[in-house]
Write a structure and sequence with these properties.
Elements lengths: L26 H12 L5 H13 L17 E2 L5 E5 L7 H4 L11 H11 L20 E5 L12 H16 L6 E5 L1 H13 L15 E3 L5 E5 L4 H6 L4 H15 L6 H25 L2
Parallel strand pairs: 2-3, 2-4, 4-6
Antiparallel strand pairs: 1-3, 5-6
Length: 286
């Protein structure tokens, strides 16, 4: 059994948004964080569970090779928006290796990506597999826990051991100014991370869907119900409710925008055109 090492404390002043944006490409820094997350062995219970799921598989995916490793974040290195989920799904991201990807038509990945697409942060409204052409613009998606937990219930100790991964991604994403936490666990985990870095809000923000909280480091934290099938199938979370959250996000990020929906449509068209151009470029080099 691998030795469990306590996470390093978060750097003082972590999460400040008053520093000027870094110059140059961000991919090398994020790649180093990606590699560290993928190789993490700090939670033996979660590692055993993910590996077992990868061996046993679901019948529909019996011919696929499961990722079955910790899942890093995904998105735009220049993102101003960070979306924090709970953890990979056993047969979703634990299978595909990309957050909110592969949990079926109408699953949490599609529900989230459709909302991000409508608000101009994603070029397509689905998230089925890593080669589907999905690209995010001005947004990055991560999770409080990087391994699929049994019954979707990580322990407090497992959440704490995973926080340095989220910290490392944020250090490599210096433009983040808005955070959307999907569910109370992600919401509380983000506040815990900031507190360990010396950023503590008083009174402590309370999780509620659509609630916006201005943090001492200049960031705005939104609460949003998690787009799990349990929430979306029962109507606890509807597409309109999620759209309302990302409309508020747009208002914070681009306060001078007179018509957020028009601006969103322009953004969607822009990233769709960029995706088509990249696809054509790749075809010419084949």
């Amino acid at each position: 059994m691998p030795r469990v090492v306590a996470p390093k404390p978060v750097a003082s002043g972590f999460g400040r948004t008053d520093a000027p944006p870094r110059r140059g490409p961000k991919r090398p820094a994020l790649q180093a964080v990606h590699d560290a997350i993928v190789s993490c062995e700090l939670c033996p219970r979660l590692r055993r569970y993910c590996e077992r799921i990868g061996r046993e598989k679901r019948r529909a995916f019996r011919d696929e090779t499961y990722w079955a490793k910790p899942v890093p974040g995904f998105g735009d290195p220049q993102a101003r928006l960070l979306v924090v989920g709970l953890a990979p799904a056993a047969h979703g991201a634990n299978r595909t290796g990309r957050v909110f990807t592969g949990d079926g038509m109408g699953g949490s990945g599609d529900f989230l990506m459709a909302a991000l697409h409508r608000s101009g942060f994603a070029n397509i409204p689905t998230s089925q597999h890593p080669g589907d052409g999905l690209a995010l613009r001005d947004a990055f998606i991560a999770a409080a826990v990087r391994c699929a937990p049994p019954d979707n219930k990580p322990t407090p100790e497992e959440i704490a051991r995973c926080l340095p991964h989220l910290e490392a991604e944020l250090v490599a994403l210096p433009r983040v100014s808005v955070v959307v936490a999907l569910g109370k666990i992600g919401f509380d985990a983000y506040l815990q991370l900031l507190k360990r870095g010396g950023v503590s809000a008083r009174p402590r923000p309370r999780f509620d869907h659509g609630g916006a909280h201005q943090l001492p480091n200049g960031q705005t934290l939104f609460g949003c119900y998690h787009p799990s099938r349990q929430n979306t199938n029962t109507g606890k979370l509807t597409a309109r409710m999620m759209d309302d959250v990302f409309t508020k996000v747009r208002e914070v990020l681009d306060p001078g925008c007179r018509d957020p929906f028009a601006e969103n449509a322009i953004a969607v068209g822009r990233i769709r055109n960029e995706h088509v151009a990249e696809t054509a470029k790749g075809s010419r080099h084949r």
